[in-house]
Amino acid sequence: MVKELETLGQVELPAEVTSVPKARRYVRELLEGSAHAQTDDALLLVSELVTNAVCHSDSGRVPGGRVIVAVARHNGTLHCDVIDAGSARRIPWLRTEVDFDSGGGRGLWLVQKLATAWGWHETTTGRVVWFQLGGA
After folding, report:
1. What is the reported pTM?
2. Could you say which DSSP state residue 112 is in?
3. C-alpha closest to that of 115 among 107, 124, 126
4. pLDDT digits (tens, 9 = 90+) for 80-133
5. Concatenated DSSP letters for 45-98?
6. Structural domains for the chain
7. CA–CA gap between residue 41 and residue 31 (Å, rounded)
8. Can you give the three-state secondary structure of 87-110, one letter per residue?
9. d(Cα 16, Cα 84) in Å, to the nearest integer?
10. Closest among 26, 50, 65 to 111, alpha carbons compared
11. In sequence order, what are the residues at sequence separation of 6 or more whose Cβ sits closer than 8 angstroms to the Cβ of residue 28?
12. How many CB atoms lie within 10 A of CB 86?
């Protein structure tokens, strides 16, 4: 039997570094009591994607820029979207070589390593970067 998509929640936050822990806390509260086997991975990946949205998209460069985090569950899979204004200058880029001593550059590498699936696409109003984790 195929279950329908179950929306767990969505939050819109200012595109500021201070929103990263707020996004993580929001997702943690959504997943409390769900016994999701990969809650810690979900929190890490949301943190990475919100950080990327704030630092690399137009959302973080314009006054009043916003980032949206949307979380859903479908057939045992957790699905998270991070939605921002996109960028004409930058696209999500997965580094194949990672410097573990540097202070950054590992966000999408972590997403690729931990997520069951991930990707990104442009919309009429910006960009969506998403990931899925099995075991919901």
Report:
1. 0.87
2. H
3. 107
4. 999 999 998 776 655 566 555 555 556 788 898 999 999 999 999 899 999 999
5. HHHHHHHHHHHHSGGGTSTT-EEEEEEEEETTEEEEEEEE---SS------SS-
6. 6-134 (3.30.565.10)
7. 12
8. CCCCCCCCCCCCCCCCCCCCHHHH
9. 12
10. 50
11. 39, 43
12. 22
Calculate what percentage of the chain has a pLDDT beyond 70: 83
Q: What angle do CA 75, 21, 115 make, to 5 degrees?
A: 35
Average pLDDT of the chain is 87
pLDDT in tens, 43-86: 999 999 999 999 999 999 999 999 999 999 988 899 999 999 99
Task: Give the residue among 40, 92, 46 at the shortest CA–CA distance from 67.
Answer: 46
List b or e across 44-56, with b for residues whose CB sees 16 or more CB atoms inside 10 angstroms.
bbbbbbbbbbbbb
What pLDDT does residue 99 have?
Answer: 56
